[in-house]
Design brief:
The chain has helices at residues 3-7, 21-34, and strands spanning 11-14, 38-41. It has 49 residues and is an alpha+beta fold. It has one domain (3-45). It comes from Paraliobacillus ryukyuensis.
C-alpha cells in the first residue's frame, strides 16, 4: 500500500486545548506535505489555518 492510499484513510487532528499558532502552522504544513484528506483543528484557529 502506498503513502497516498494510507493518508486517504486518516482523519488528521490537532485538538489539544493548549495548541499554539506555531503548532497549527506545522500541522498545516504536514497536512499539505502528506496529503491528508480530512483535518480537524480547534475552532480558535480556523481563520488562521
Amino acid at each position: 500500500m502506498d503513502l497516498q492510499k494510507i493518508t486517504d484513510m486518516i482523519d488528521y487532528t490537532l485538538l489539544n486545548p493548549i495548541t499554539t499558532k506555531e503548532d497549527s502552522e506545522k500541522f498545516c504544513k504536514e497536512t499539505i506535505t502528506y496529503g491528508f484528506k480530512t483535518v480537524f483543528v480547534n475552532p480558535y484557529y480556523i481563520s488562521y489555518v
